[in-house]
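Sequence, please.
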């Protein structure tokens, strides 16, 4: 059995050819897969000749499911539980203080979306959970506890939901008689405000479910911290590759690379030009890479995917500024 065949993946990794190209050369390289999931990127990097892959996931079911791939890798794959925001520490603990490549896929895996018992999907009834790590407060805890204005902020900021206040009021009215426990109950409350799904349109619960998932898992804070961790652990010439799936994530990654590759401050011609820190990344292009028609035909999940990558310079890493990256704060930004 080859590494590619071990633990057949139920999840099709997006932009896989583009990810491998952005990470190249991989022959003999040490790389980090910060979001192991079903192991698609790890498997592809091993097949492409990576000397060692350190894979990270906070979902215990992903760690368990990845055991077959670890066994088939002949010691080249190390799979560790944890969050990608700590990828530099986890790599050091695995014996690699610096690496040649880091890849992050910020989307939810099909393994999570397709299992109703995980509570991520509005398409199948299940417990209103949404916890990637299976620990901490659930989505049900959130909708049953937050004040109406806080719920509205959550849906507005993390879901960009224009009807956020109307949905929050409907949730509060419903929970006064019976707390939410199931995904179908939340879908019904949202549909009571926005109506049911119409042909050719996005499901009305899409934005609210996205917002809850981001909040429950602290996804945007995790992303900004992971970018900083990758900057710390990459060798000069090492490559950071990030695949995002919605505008909030892509904005953070875009601003990070723009700030870290900047060589001039810009600004007014009437003022002395300010100095900027040495660039920590070099970019080969400013525009994101999207999926082509051939991939979209077989993997609709790739429709919203955007890939950005940068090449590490020799400049020292620096601290992260979440505000400058546009990481929203639930209790500061108001609808």
């Amino acid at each position: 059995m080859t590494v590619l065949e071990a633990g057949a993946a139920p999840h099709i990794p997006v932009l896989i050819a583009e990810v491998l190209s952005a990470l190249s050369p991989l022959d003999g390289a040490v790389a980090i897969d910060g979001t192991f999931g079903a192991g698609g990127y790890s498997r592809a990097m091993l097949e492409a000749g990576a000397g060692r892959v350190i894979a990270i996931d906070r979902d215990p079911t992903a760690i368990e499911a990845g055991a077959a791939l670890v066994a088939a890798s002949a010691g080249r794959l190390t799979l560790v539980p944890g969050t990608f925001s700590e990828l530099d520490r986890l790599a050091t603990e695995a014996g690699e203080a610096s690496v040649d490549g880091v890849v992050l896929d910020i989307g939810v895996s099909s393994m999570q979306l397709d299992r109703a018992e995980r509570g991520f999907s509005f398409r199948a009834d299940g417990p209103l959970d949404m916890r990637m790590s299976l620990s901490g407060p659930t989505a049900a805890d959130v909708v049953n506890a937050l004040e109406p204005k806080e719920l509205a902020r959550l849906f507005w900021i993390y879901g960009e939901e224009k009807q956020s206040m109307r949905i929050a009021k409907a949730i509060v009215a419903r929970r006064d008689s019976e707390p939410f426990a199931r995904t179908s109950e939340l879908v019904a409350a949202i549909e009571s405000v926005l109506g049911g799904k119409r042909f050719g349109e996005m499901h009305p619960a899409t934005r609210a479910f996205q917002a809850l998932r981001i909040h429950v898992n602290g996804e945007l804070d995790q992303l900004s911290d992971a970018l900083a961790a990758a900057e710390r652990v990459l060798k000069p010439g090492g490559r950071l590759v990030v695949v995002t799936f919605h505008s909030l994530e892509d904005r953070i990654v875009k601003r990070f690379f723009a700030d870290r590759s900047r060589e001039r401050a810009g600004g007014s011609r009437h003022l002395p030009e300010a100095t900027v820190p040495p660039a920590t990344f070099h970019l080969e292009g400013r525009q994101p890479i999207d999926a082509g028609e051939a991939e979209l035909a077989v993997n609709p999940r790739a429709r919203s995917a955007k890939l950005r990558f940068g090449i590490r310079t020799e400049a020292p890493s620096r601290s992260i500024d979440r505000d400058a990256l546009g990481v929203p704060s639930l209790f500061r930004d108001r609808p």
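Strands lie at 30-33, 52-57, 77-81, 99-105, 234-244, 281-282, 306-312.
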